[in-house]
């Protein structure tokens, strides 16, 4: 039994850092970080500062609000600490964390903030920040991910991004990008704001569009309630149906494997490979949306999405040596396509919409995972519709040509409307559009393949897979490809994949995960931040950091 | 007298690495790198591999072709080495270079490649690569910056990006980005291509769109000549006028200053500041384009652009400790605006077009410089039209309110049509559009200020400057701002500025200078690339690199 170092599964009953309560159609998600509740023992989470343990609960809450609370149309993020909203990422944690840990921490927090924006935009759950005091660094960045920022006007409450002056790192959880690209703060004001350690408060914060509303202390709670109620009332979410409980995942951890209901992970640490197999459905698709909801967390597409998401997060954070994910699927392609059609036909239903939105996020998680992803389409695999996105999300796709000796099944691939719209990447293009960026004829050819059962030849012809191999070559070729991949520098692969995966236009999200994150990763490695005399290490010691003043 | 470590001024007569010749309307720019001609003494530039010295000559050639050869409509980049086009950046140089040197080297090579694309797109000089053998790494990336790639089909010539498998770094001179975003190579093919050490040749290179034409060995030279002649014939450049010689810059280097004709640089190393003053014109603007051309390199806007460009490059590469540029101007605002109107009125003329295009590139160089840029608008300054772009290009702009004691002059600012179109940033927006990204009302207000002499109050009202100070506060405020800036970590500032300067959409260029460069800078710091047992250090030793296999 491998000890699970970081587990992304939790439940409101077990939260140590957040309190979730409900007032009619409004959810109140209050931060109340337990200083001793962090993952590490060498730092204290004072003043609502956070580490990954805090963000795992936040991600869980955001997820549950979508599924378990169809009635909730607005979510207020607040704080239970007096005069403190959130002090941002814990500095002791950042100072002591290894580079991979820091990078993984930032990626997950960024994904969670994107999921908040996704809920606001697509799920009818608008997020509001109720800033009752200091919102500094990651604390203000959390607010930036919400749709409406209310700041108490008590003469001291402020928003701040003090990372540059104080810590020699960037406001890297989307802060820099959201300032100029979401809140449209003028670049010179953004520059000033990011260098003012103590932040900006009151009228100036409003004037610079750092917040949306300024409320006097006595009226604060009342105004927050009112604003949230207004937003909730405008939501398209149903007020009269039951939610779907996200029950505990069935997981069994072995030394080098994880077994979920519909996902199996086999880890080969010597080869640096994890083989992830997703299973098709056992039951036929339901007949209507209500029947799907009544299956709850056992509705196959939802169960599979949650399990795959958990598996990816587990591997990302607990198996750093695994450089390559090999994705397989097993099951009835017809049954998958039937489910896929069901999702498409009922996408207006709140629950089905949530399931599709969850798949969108899981697939983005694959796109943003800094591991090589290779998908294998084999006889008896079931990559159809939304599952076919796993082929398109991979760095390379290989398909088996012909049949296995003595068997009849051939490998087939099936595209549906799910591949042409509802599951865009972070760049807001479909994976097909990204794949054929600048190649209109290629895109057209691929679109013509929608709705047809594609053999290896046909999938290759439509440019949907990288290469096809028959039984004679399959094992050897794949072995060589995987061995070769494992021989390369993991860092070079990470940089290469991050650049090749996202052709075409950029969005807030791609800017955050591409440009901003890359700069932050660079800064995290600089001695001025992380060295013995760097700002992260020196913070709180009373000593000033000692900088190499050369500009690079 | 400070020794000039790296000088960006050169002349074809002094080239050690390139041969420039002319055939009617076609220029042939042949690479013939002198192995002993590099900047460093600890590496040899074999097989047309390059260091900064090679790129300085290339940049010079590209620049001279535009100004000195109006007749040239196509440029063929070739090689004089047998069966070798270019082996890319020299690995010994990369292994021994300091981090700042590597980063500055990459930035300049990237700017040069962008200038090649700019000449093709806007200047009527189309670039062709004639690949006569191996084009590897930076060699193929150079070809990617040209508009048309011809590959000899001799069974061995190939194009390759072997950085990832061989050196554990990225094809960071635009390679990864141009593959998927310019040549529209499918992402899985790009992935395969970037991991095949020996590259791809012949029909497959053509099929994957890695090259535009495949030519048999015997017909190669003939086909290259023919293709170039066709392209030159389609150029809109005049065939019947004299070029403008780019005469040697007048420069005097002192211990802590540089004096050009129209630019003065004062360096305060203790304060980590360089004060750059640009001077307005001494003479009135010419009456027609021919008169401007007859002034040649002494045409004030051209002379100033060249001097400012050289000053920035000098500071970037030779004064790493200088973290802040303070930009001043001095002269007659009316005279500047008169020149600015002249440029606008004659922008169809080939020479005036080149001057404007040069200003576009110099201003982009400012945007892409990893130093804080602060512009000061004072009494007797002359920021009008294209010079006002220096205010908009800066991280912060400060303007003097009122008059100096006992004097009459006030600070004024003047926007023209030059600020609303012809000088876009790398993101393809004007600096005004970027400044007011997402703020249509703000942009409109600023556009209404075009054509008016703006006082400090008015400029502040139009949100064109960050802050205005009167005589009482001016010196103290600026001193504090500059001191504060110099106290911050230079790395954090670099990352912050790179993210705040480019709001809005992204382009090939911003992706290269933002995302790709940031990842490359990150990779350059990783032990897997640059450490004692990393790939760069181990290359050529017979020892395999020893990688930390954890994915970050």
Beta strands of chain A, count: 22
Largest sheet of chain A: 8 strands, mixed
Radius of gyration of chain A: 24 Å
Distance between the termini of chain A: 46 Å
Write the layout of secondary structure elements.
The structure is a homodimer of 552-residue chains.
Chain A: E1 18-23, E2 26-31, E3 49-50, H1 52-68, E4 74-79, E5 84-86, E6 88-89, H2 91-96, H3 99-122, E7 126-131, E8 134-136, H4 138-145, E9 148-153, E10 158-160, H5 163-167, H6 175-181, H7 187-193, E11 200-201, H8 202-207, E12 213-216, H9 220-233, E13 251-253, E14 257-260, E15 263-268, E16 273-279, H10 289-295, H11 300-318, E17 324-330, H12 333-345, H13 350-367, E18 372-377, H14 389-392, E19 396-401, E20 413-414, H15 431-435, H16 440-448, E21 453-454, H17 456-461, E22 467-470, H18 471-487, H19 490-500, H20 508-525, H21 527-530, H22 535-538
Parallel strand pairs in A: 2-4, 3-6, 4-7, 5-8, 7-9, 8-10, 9-12, 16-17, 17-18, 18-19, 19-22
Antiparallel strand pairs in A: 1-2, 10-11, 13-14, 14-15, 15-16, 20-21
């Amino acid at each position: 039994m491998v000890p699970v170092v970081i587990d992304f599964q939790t439940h409101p009953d077990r939260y140590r850092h957040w309190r979730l309560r409900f007032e009619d159609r409004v959810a109140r998600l209050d931060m109340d970080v337990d200083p001793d509740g962090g993952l590490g023992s060498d730092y204290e989470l004072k003043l609502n500062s956070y580490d990954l343990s805090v963000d795992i609960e936040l991600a869980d809450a955001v997820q549950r609000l979508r599924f378990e609370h169809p009635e909730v149309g607005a979510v207020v993020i607040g704080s239970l600490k007096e005069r403190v909203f959130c002090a941002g990422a814990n500095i002791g944690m950042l100072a002591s964390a290894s580079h991979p840990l820091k990078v993984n921490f930032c990626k997950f927090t960024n994904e969670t903030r994107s999921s908040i924006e996704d809920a606001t935009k697509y799920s009818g759950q608008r997020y509001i920040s109720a800033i009752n005091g200091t919102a500094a660094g990651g604390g203000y960045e959390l607010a930036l991910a919400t749709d409406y920022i209310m700041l108490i006007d008590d003469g001291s409450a402020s928003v701040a991004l003090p990372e540059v002056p104080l810590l020699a790192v960037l406001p890297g959880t989307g802060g820099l990008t959201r300032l100029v690209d979401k809140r449209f703060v003028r670049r010179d004001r953004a520059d000033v704001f990011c260098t003012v350690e103590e932040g900006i408060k009151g009228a100036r914060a409003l004037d610079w569009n750092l917040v949306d509303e300024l409320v006097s202390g006595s009226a604060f709670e009342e105004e927050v309630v009112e604003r949230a109620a207004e937003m909730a009332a405008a939501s398209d979410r149903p007020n009269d149906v039951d939610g779907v409980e996200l029950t505990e995942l069935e997981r069994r951890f072995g030394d080098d494997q994880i077994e979920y209901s519909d996902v199996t992970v086999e880890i080969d640490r010597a080869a640096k490979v994890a083989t992830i197999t997703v299973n098709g459905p056992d039951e036929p698709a339901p007949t209507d949306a209500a029947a799907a909801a009544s299956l709850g967390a056992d509705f196959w597409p939802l169960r599979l999405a949650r399990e795959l998401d958990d598996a990816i997060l587990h591997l990302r954070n607990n198996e750093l040596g695994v450089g390559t994910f090999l994705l397989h699927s097993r099951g009835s392609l017809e049954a998958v396509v039937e489910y896929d059609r069901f999702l498409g036909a009922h996408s207006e239903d709140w629950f089905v919409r949530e399931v599709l939105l969850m798949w969108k996020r899981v697939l983005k998680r694959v796109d943003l995972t800094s591991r090589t992803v290779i998908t294998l389409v084999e006889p008896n695999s079931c990559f159809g519709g939304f599952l076919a996105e796993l082929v398109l999300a991979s760095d390379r796709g290989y398909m088996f040509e012909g049949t296995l000796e003595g068997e009849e099944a051939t490998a087939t691939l099936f595209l549906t409307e799910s591949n042409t719209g509802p599951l865009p990447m972070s760049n807001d293009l479909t994976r097909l559009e990204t794949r054929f960026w600048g190649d209109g004829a290629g895109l057209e050819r691929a679109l013509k393949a929608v709705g047809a059962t594609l053999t290896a030849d046909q999938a290759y012809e439509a440019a949907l897979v990288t290469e096809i191999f028959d039984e004679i070559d399959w094992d050897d070729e794949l072995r060589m490809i995987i061995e070769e991949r494992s021989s390369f520098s993991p860092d070079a692969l990470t940089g290469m994949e991050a650049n090749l995966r996202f052709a075409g236009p950029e969005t807030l999200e791609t800017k955050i995960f591409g440009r901003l994150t890359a700069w932050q990763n660079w800064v995290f490695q600089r001695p001025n931040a992380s060295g013995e005399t760097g700002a992260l290490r020196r913070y709180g010691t009373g000593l000033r950091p000692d900088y190499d003043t050369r500009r690079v």
